[in-house]
Amino acid sequence: MNSARDLRIAVVGAGLGGLACARVLQLHGRSVTVFEGDASADARPQGGTLDLHVGTGQSALRAAGLLDRFRALSRPEGQEWRLLDPATAAVLPDQSPPDDFGDDKPEIDRGQLRGLLLESLTAGSVRWDRAVSGVTPLGDGTGRVHFGDGSAEDFDLVIGADGARSRVRPALSDAVPGYTGVSLVEAGFDDCDNRHADLARRVGPGTMMAKAGAGALFAQRNGNGHIRVYAAFRAPEDWHLAAGVELGDTAAVRAHLLTRYDGWDERLLALLRDNDGGFINRPVFALPVPHLWEHVPGVTLLGDAAHLMPPLGVGANLALLDGTDLAHALLTEPGVDDAVRAYEGVMLPRSAEAAKGCAEGLEHLLPPTGA
């Protein structure tokens, strides 16, 4: 049997949770290989801004030895929320003052955080352009990783950290993400402090939101003078087909959205009228709640692969905590299977509770009845 330091551990997916797991293992002298289908770290955009909470995401970064570097990059002022009246664009009363936040959940761009984790790993730890097509538990406590090119490698543990459409998940569960009934349409504004100064002042340093019935508009300050906007509404997943709208037709998508938000203040409609570039359709999917599976030796999941939930500020935090918790279990438990059982015994009930809360939060934010 391999010694603890000779174990072959594979992480599938170079997202936040998988990288955090790899970082903690390497901090303690353990070998780990991360497989990622993207050709490089900057092959595609990495998404918007994240708020990292003290008890979850920040706790994970402390375990990874990266908390101070995170704090140097983060934006505590990004915690500010402004709720606006959709009819007048006036800021509603009882908003938190901008100096009332501390370090409870400062914001950081996801790309910055991922870069911080990647830089912390030993060179060559991430195998880029190595797409995984599936995983087979071998029945002896190990797992076989199948790659898109037809090759395969065996490992003592395969960790599925490959997100919503995980190729590892089917080795443990038949569950697939389902549409929540909510769609987001993303837009963006660049160089906001100069080219879109009025918008920048209205949004402030954090997040601005206006909502009415089953529709809402969000605008979030990101790094480098970028503001990311989301139109959120309840609709069938194929809403654009029913509306006769081609998603690549910026003018048609804009016209449809302006119709959806008809009657809102023009200063809010400018979020949809004046954006730089086009629109990106992002239907919101989630795994069943709770998402559980019978333990299978040699394979486990973390992050969205294990508990995809609506994007209400929880998922990235849990992914980071999953990764460091799993690494800690592998470092302290007597064997791999003991470690995975201990990890799953904590992670599964924790994620089920969080996913239930996110599902309820989405219904509160955008009621199915539009009430």
Automatic annotation (TrEMBL):
It is found in: Cytoplasm. GO terms for molecular function: FAD binding; monooxygenase activity. Its cofactor is FAD. FAD binds at D51, R110, D304. Keywords: Cytoplasm, FAD, Flavoprotein, Monooxygenase, NADP, Nucleotide-binding, Oxidoreductase. Its EC number is 1.14.13.-. The keyword Plastid does not apply. GO terms for cellular component: cytoplasm. SUPFAM superfamilies: FAD/NAD(P)-binding domain. Its main location: cytoplasm. InterPro entries: FAD-bd, FAD/NAD-bd_sf, TetX_monooxygenase. It holds the Pfam family FAD_binding_3. The keyword Cytoplasm applies. Residues 8-186 form the FAD-binding domain. It catalyses: a tetracycline + NADPH + O2 + H(+) = an 11a-hydroxytetracycline + NADP(+) + H2O. NADPH binds at R44. It is an enzyme of class 1 (oxidoreductase). One of its GO terms (biological process) is response to antibiotic. Monomer. Consists of an N-terminal FAD-binding domain with a Rossman fold and a C-terminal substrate-binding domain. Belongs to the aromatic-ring hydroxylase family. TetX subfamily. PANTHER family: FAD DEPENDENT OXIDOREDUCTASE DOMAIN-CONTAINING PROTEIN, MONOOXYGENASE ASQM-RELATED. An FAD-requiring monooxygenase active on some tetracycline antibiotic derivatives, which leads to their inactivation. Hydroxylates carbon 11a of tetracycline and some analogs. This is Flavin-dependent monooxygenase. It comes from Streptomyces caniferus.
